[in-house]
Amino acid sequence: MVFAERKEIAIQTRKIFLASSEELRADRTAFELMLGQLNQEWVPRGTFFHLVPWDNFIDAMSKQGLQQEYNKAILACDIFVLLFFTKVGRYTAEEFETAFGAFNADRKLLIYTYFKDDLILTGDIDESIISLLQFKEKLKSLKHYYTRYRSSEELKWLFSRQLDKLYGDTQGLSLEITDNTPQSQIDTIALTLVNRFLSDVDAR
Length: 204
Fold this sequence. Notes:
By secondary structure, the chain is of the alpha/beta class. It contains 6 helices and 5 strands; from the N terminus they run E-H-E-H-E-H-E-H-E-H-H. The protein has helices at about 25-40, 65-75, 90-105, 130-140, 150-165, 185-204; strands spanning about 10-20, 45-55, 80-85, 110-115, 145-150. It has a 5-stranded parallel beta sheet, sandwiched between helices. Helix 1 (about 25-40) runs parallel beside helix 5 and helix 2 runs parallel beside helix 3 (about 90-105). The relative contact order is 0.13.
């Protein structure tokens, strides 16, 4: 009996820190699920995405304070992702400062900021909206441009495409659907076409 030799694949882990305010809990959950789905495709290709969300830490006393533990985790990551909507809390802003400092120091940490462009009730607006305006101005002064997204589905599409550019092949995504195209890829192609259409509408 002849046994086929099993080829071992070296897995490279990419750590992603996800920061946001509590108001975007649903989007954070969707982001986490997306990475779980992507890992099913990427692990056989040798890459595993390890998510480090801020709300996944143990709420135990730390000698330097829990926020310092967050900051240490950021410095150990490859990618920093910040989601914001109607406000940017003090701790979220501090996490961005930590990430930006690391970026300036050795340029190994990649920073992505995503702004949820959605409707809000005017009755829900309070003084915390000032933090949003201040953060936007800060990004502008740093010449760092955030990406807008309208839904968790669009966020997933935008970020997954970035991962493709960073760690995927250079051929890009084929938009041709055949009888052999897996359903997961069909869903991705459909979402790609929808987002292209929406982008064209915005440009008009």
